Amino acid sequence: MKYLILLLIGFQSIAQDFSAANIPAELKEKAHAVVRNHETEFYVKDIGEAVMKIKGTITILDEKGNDHANLVVGYDKFTKVSNIEARIYDANGKQIKKLKKGDIESFSTSSGQNSIEDNYVKVASLTQSTYPYTIDYSYEYSYKNMMFYPVWEAILDNAEFTAVEKALLKVSLPDGLQFRYKEQNMPTKVVMTKEDDRLNYSWIVTNLKAIEKEPNSPHYSLIMPTVYTAPTDFKIDDYTGNINSWNDIGKFYGALNSNRDQLPAELSAKIKDLVKNETDVTNKVRKVYEYLQANTRYVSIQLGIGGWQSMKATEVATKGYGDCKALTNFTKAMLKDLSIPSYIALVRAGEDRAEIQADFPSFQFNHVILCVPMFKDTLWLECTSQNNPYGYLGSFTGDRNVVLVTENGGKLIKTPTYKHTDNQLLRNATIEIKDNGEAVADIKTEYTGLQQEIYAEVAHSLSNDDQKKWLYKNLSLPSVEIINFSLNEKKERLPIVEEKLNLHLRNIANKSGSRLFITPNILNQQRRLPIVNANRKTELELDGNYLDIDNIAFKIPKGYAAEYLPEPTKIETKFGKYTSKVEMKDDVIIYNREVSMFKGRHAAATYNEWVDFKKKMVKADKNQVVLVAKP
Amino acid sequence: MKKTALLLWLVCCANLLYAQKVDLPSIYFGEVNFSDVEMKYYDKDSTADAVVLYDYGNTSFELKSGMIYIHFVYYGRIKILKKSALSLGTISRVLVSGGYGREQIMSKIDGFTYNIENGEVKKEKLTKESIFIEKRVGDYQNVKITMPKVKEGSVIDYTYTIDTPFSISGNPATWTFQAERPVLWSIYEISIPSYFTYRILMSGYLDLIANESKDVSLSIGAFNTTGTYQKFVMKDAPAFRSEPFTANIGDYLSKIDFELTSVVWPTMFSRIYALDYSSLNRNMLDKEIFGGQIEKTGFLKSIAKEIKAKYTDSTDRLKAACEYIQKNVKWDENFSLYSNNLKKVLESHKGDAGDINLLLIALLREMGFDANPVILSTRGHGKIHEQYALMKKFNYVVAHIEKNGKDFLMDATDEYLKLGMLPINCLNGKGWLVHPTNARFVTITTPERDLRFVKANMVIDEDSELKGDFSKSYGGYGGWSAKKEFKNKGQEKYLEDVKKENATWVIEKADYINASDLEAPMEAQYQVVLNEYLTRAGNILYLKPMLSEAHKENLFKTKERLYPIDFAFVKDETFIANYELPKDYSIAEMPKNVSISLPENGGKFTYLIAVKGNILTVNSRIQLRKPLYYVEDYPSLREFFDKIVEKHNEQIVLKKN
């Protein structure tokens, strides 16, 4: 599914002063670039067409601000770019260069081997090596992609270290045409004016200081000053829509994709045959899902309206591939033939994506999944993956709002969340240390839920050789040789990967004279730390949600006695819990560590408490045991 | 593997080392063996997720509407064994599309996918709608072919032809015998009309099983002539895998290249493309964008004069010249050998490597030095070919003078390179000195090492704390990267990262010395309180004397190694710490001194510990004296690091009297 690419950069006012000398001092604080003026004008001609004019004047203060001097203008079948102009001025405002046509390159942004897209960008580099300098540019879109109105970020691209002297968004509509907007953390509100037979809505911000992004913050797109706009009535290709609610979004998507779910008769018969011995609906769905995974592959095809309209199920049946819409629709078609109702769900997928604006119905999605309502609960299917466990959404689409496309329109609902106990690392290891300090380790680790994703990915996307390489890279042990290993996936609703390692280790116990030193937490050490910040501004957002349990038994050579065993550690905070302890029984040292981390958002003021918690964990993880040879 | 064979390219000319009759498989497009579709795993590499069953290319020459084309027919058959190889179902080729006469034409695209259904092979044909063309940056397009019904177990058959006008390239595309997946059969045929002469260059570690050559009669357009037909066959090429610490893994890939040496079209046209270095040398000197540029140095007169007036010592003058270019022309991060106009480069204050270093040569010449260009290939670009002068193997230029009878190389692309130091990317074997009278190969060595020196003076506190000064100095390549990082991050961020890296440290004061001085090593000085390296148990204290500087993991994890280990430069790491023992404490146990060496003086590790009064001194030094180690050295190198890890993690036991 396509996102609207709005790479806003932008034009030319009368008698503008391009000298860098006039930038207010407070705007230069922490800034690598200052947006002197930026204007976005979205001029709606009618429900099917608009013109967007963008102009901007930006002073680049130093090398790190150069990103803003790269003009990147996206376009596709529905958006045409014209009149790209740019000039560059030196510190005194004297023009040093004018952009020539030949300086603009255009190319496809197609993202990879398995994607076929018609998105292009025009790119021009305006960077200079003497600072400061000012660029002044403008361009224009003719725009027929009216499902989307602009999302306007008051600070250009939500970039850090970028101050804004003045920025403006203007949406102009013919009288009688409606649109919707949402203001987010805007210092100023909309100003409406009437001009002839048009209504103009403007937002102006002035003197926004540069910000520096802080780690573990809420997604910046959710806290930066932004204006979201969206159409009410619109037209794209030959399809018209009217959006006032999530229900309408679902209706439009449903209409755009109606009658595309007929299967070829042969396949329909095959599917029926496939499940003929299954009485349970869950098992029928599982069979269908397994058929999908075994017989199709994901190829992203996003051409024109095909960005939102699915390939027909018959086509997927003959070609054996499709994008998310096509494969989901195909699965829905197979289930339909078994009289199992299912619904397509529009989702913004991705682990690090900001959640959608749930109170602002508009097209905010980049992916679709399939929802199969069952008697007791709901099954969710990710149809683009050849390996995903049946019914598991995970970090890609779990725990977020989606819009279900039903016969009666769209419905905003939430996908399953995974509790901290769903995402486990459960490890049991035996390490036998020999007289010469070498050791043999048998380690069994079970990863579940979100914690198993990376291991599952390694298990099915890498060859055996590469899996071994990956393990070598990720085992932070002094000197290790993998004698045997296995990664076994248990594809359940809450999937599990079982990792078995048989290792030969050297230098795991350090022998110095008559003593043997062992740091028992050899496999799961917290290492890096965030650093204390007395001026934390944003809330602390913790997205880790997991439980780690490590049990390690070290068999030590005969004849040693404990000279030093660390005290048990127990830390309890609202962010998480940590306990670790070491015991010695005969010739065995038993190490136990348990860590729970909770997802949550906390006040900015608690940030240093969290750092302190992490610091204590780091320290406890480095505790060592000292053994001394018995006399 | 023999040491000599490691770096030398296996070169075989048209006269053959041996020719051998080989039974080739009979493979027909569109007809597949049941056993191939049935295959569940590849017996020679059970871990493979796909295997190339057949990889066939055939090159010939054609004349169409007065233009010569290199006509390439490809045929490939791939077996998909696991889902992780499903992406092979999309075939992607990037072509030149520069308009009439400068356009590669891909045609005759055809393909089938075979699957087993109900115990029988089912064949799906590739349809036209599954062929897509995307425009790429510049004059390129990307043809993507999505094969139908590709799934685990499928066999894919596909074929296409590509016609490349001679104006785009007179050389047939490189044929690689190896790929990311194992290749069962790789067969390459080429028929070359006698009008064209090529030098054949083979490289890599694998042997051909057949290498045939015979004279044949050929026709090109309406011309009937003779020519040579050649065939190269490789069988069971294993999957090509990368290894860490290599300059360019592609140097080890088994492949074949053709280099045009002459075109002689009787009575019409004749041209020799000599592949010898003296011709290359002459060409480079004659080129306006190379030799031509460094002839015209007049525009640098005043700055040359200024530098000469300011400095009398020749080293100072060289330094000033490099510095002048570094400060006045910003490198745009691109490599190049050439420049269109040095004067404009200086005016615009930015340029690529060719612009900058040719400008440096011009300035040095204007100052009276006998400065000349050395052309080379960066590490990312692979090794140059010493037997044949292949221009495409070169992608970079640096400045050369003779200083006290020795080669002296300079580069001005980077403000943190001290005089005589080349960017790491340039440390790649040999370069060629382009010179009117004294042209020759120059070994690219660098006098600089990666030098790290850590010094700590600590007082051991009875409260299990260490207090004192900790300083880290970075010289040579270590200094180069540290200074760069420091400049990029700024002191605040740099220190922040040091704190993140050393989570338990309390840094009371931090100073950075010579962070922007090219000549001196950069020194980071910290006043610290450390509680991580000391553990207390009653009246015993355990000290980890290497502090944060202990090597904790062996760099070399895997037991096997296929290719040489290329560090690019020599390394030297020293750690010296003095510990003042607390009153009433004495040493109960401490590590033994050790000194180990790598064979052939390849490196040395010493670990010395001594007590004088109440001062304990620990001294560790690691020297890796070669920039490059051969595969034979790998086990000892791995053992060497094991010993370092062991020694570095030993502890000292202090006891209260």
Shape of chain B: globular
Total helices of chain A: the number is 10
As a whole number of angstroms, the C-alpha radius of gyration of chain B is: 31 Å
As residue ranges, the low-confidence spans of chain A are 1-15
Number of domains of chain A: 3
Report the sheet-strand fraction of chain B: 35-45%
The CATH architecture of the largest domain in chain B would be Sandwich
| Topology, number of strands of chain B | 36
Ranges of chain B where pLDDT stays below 50 over 5 or more residues in a row are 1-19
- Most extensive chain contact? A-B, 64 and 64 residues
In angstroms, what separates the terminal alpha carbons of chain B?
Answer: 59 Å
CATH class of the largest domain in chain B: Mainly Beta
Number of DSSP helical runs of chain B: 10
Determine the fraction of residues in helical runs of chain A and give it as a percent range: 10-25%
Query: How would a textbook summarize the main sheet of chain B?
Result: 8 strands, mixed
Shape estimate of chain A = globular
* CATH C-level category of the largest domain in chain A: Mainly Beta
- Write down the Rg of chain A: 29 Å
Indicate the mean pLDDT of chain A. 91
Q: Which strand order does the major sheet of chain A show?
A: 5-4-9-2-1-11-14-13
Model description:
The complex is a heterodimer of chains A (631) and B (657). With 631 residues, chain A is an alpha+beta fold. Chain A folds into three domains: 2-239, Immunoglobulin-like (Sandwich); 243-414, C8orf32 fold (Roll), CATH 3.10.620; 420-629, Jelly Rolls. Chain A has ten helices and 39 strands. In chain A, the strands form ten sheets. In chain A, strands 5-4-9-2-1-11-14-13 form an eight-stranded mixed β-sheet, with no helix packed on it. An eight-stranded mixed β-sheet of chain A has the order 28-29-27-26-33-37-36-35. In chain A, strands 23-22-21-24-25 form a five-stranded antiparallel β-sheet. The longest helix of chain A is centred in the middle third of the chain and has 15 residues, at 281-295. The radius of gyration of chain A is 29 Å and the shape is globular. In chain A, 42% of the residues are buried. By secondary structure, chain B is an alpha+beta fold. The radius of gyration of chain B is 31 Å and the shape is globular. In chain B, the strands form eight sheets. An eight-stranded mixed β-sheet of chain B has the order 5-4-8-2-1-10-13-12. Chain B has four domains: 1-20 and 172-240 and 250-274, no CATH class; 81-165, no CATH class; 277-443, C8orf32 fold; 450-656, Jelly Rolls. Chain B is built from ten helices and 36 strands. Classes of the chains: A alpha+beta (631), B alpha+beta (657). Chains A and B meet through β6, α9, β28, β30 and α10 of A and β6, β7, α9 and α10 of B.
